[in-house]
Design goal:
heterodimer; A: 130 residues; alpha/beta; 5-stranded mixed barrel; 3 helices; B: 188 residues; alpha+beta; 8-stranded antiparallel beta barrel; 9 strands
Chain lengths: 130, 188
């Protein structure tokens, strides 16, 4: 009887390990659109530390979920540009039409600074307000 | 008299700089959402492959200079754990956040470009993980609606950039990494 119980416990333990390791190893991605933003700022506030080489602040923004507000200066496919300094790659195609010059707020992951175009890149983004 | 000559000189200098800047801009073709895929999969093991869909590339059709920039954090893997290892242990993206290429298109002539694919050599320096490597490869080019399409691939190895792969995963990652490029450059 005792033996049976020990086997049962060991079995349960093994099954838990298998499920846990499967969960970890299957490597699910974060869902940026469901995460709350860690930083909320204007386009220029996000851009400045990168542009001015303030690497301490700039690197703290990378990989963070950022909520950014700025004036729409370009739309190409699923890519928006805010104030000529933030490039936003949306997860989904635009469902509504946006007008140039309007204020837009987006949420996405801050990928880093492109010093060739001098823009901060954001991916996996969604539009929050317009 | 001297005053008017001076004025004329000033105006002409301003005009010349304006015009020359203008032609410079016209020569520039830019891609903001270029694709780079790389694959280092080994048979029987989980695929090691990633894609970056927001690569920047600038081509000057006059000087034939080409430059590209990919943010390392922009490379997405199917498996988030693999992505994390790639960033933290192999490429060290916090220290080296980008990969750049600076080079030249050999025998490139914009006026010869048509809708038919044309193969050309690209030669330049690839910088990654704080190291630099000369890369020379054949890419194919095409002109579509006035934009320049560029596709091709080349091979690099992790050791080229002193990227150390730990022993336990060494046989799961190919020694040679194939890098595929797909850019559509639009006139600025």
């Amino acid at each position: 009887m005792k033996k049976k119980r020990i086997f049962f416990i060991i079995g349960l333990f093994l099954v838990t390990i298998v499920f846990l390791s499967y969960y970890v190893l299957s490597g699910r991605h974060r869902n940026i659109s469901k995460e709350d933003p860690t930083i909320t700022l204007k386009a220029i506030e996000l851009h400045n530390p990168f542009k001015n080489n303030n690497s301490h602040i700039a690197s703290s923004y990378i990989d963070k979920v950022a909520q950014v507000t700025g004036r729409l200066t370009d739309i190409t496919g699923k890519t928006l540009e805010l104030d000529y300094m933030i490039q936003v790659d949306l997860t989904d195609s635009l469902s509504t039409s946006l007008d140039m010059g309007m204020m837009v707020t987006i949420k996405g992951r801050c990928v880093g600074y492109d010093d060739m175009l001098e823009v901060v890149k954001i991916d996996q983004a969604i539009i929050l307000l317009k | 008299m001297i005053n008017s000559i001076y004025k004329a000189l000033c105006i002409s200098i301003t005009l010349i700089t304006c015009v020359s800047q203008n032609t410079n801009a016209q020569n520039k073709y830019i891609e903001r959402n270029g694709e780079i895929r790389f694959e280092a999969s080994e048979n029987l093991f989980e695929e090691v492959k990633a894609i970056n869909k927001s690569v920047t590339c600038i081509l000057d059709i006059e000087t034939k200079q080409i430059a590209a920039l990919a943010l390392i954090k922009g490379f997405r893997f199917k498996n988030s754990l693999m992505e994390e290892h790639f960033n933290e242990n192999y490429i060290e993206s916090e220290k080296y956040p980008k990969a750049t290429f600076k080079g030249k298109l050999l025998d490139f002539n914009y006026s010869e470009l048509t809708e038919n694919w044309l193969e050309l050599e690209v030669d330049g320096k690839l910088q990654l993980h704080g190291k630099e490597k000369q890369v020379r490869s054949t890419m194919k080019f095409q002109k579509v609606d006035g934009s320049v399409v560029m596709k091709g691939s080349f091979i690099v190895t992790p050791s080229d950039f002193e990227i150390k792969i730990p022993k336990i995963v060494r046989n799961k990652i190919a020694k040679e990494v194939t890098v595929n490029i797909d850019f559509k450059l639009v006139q600025e």
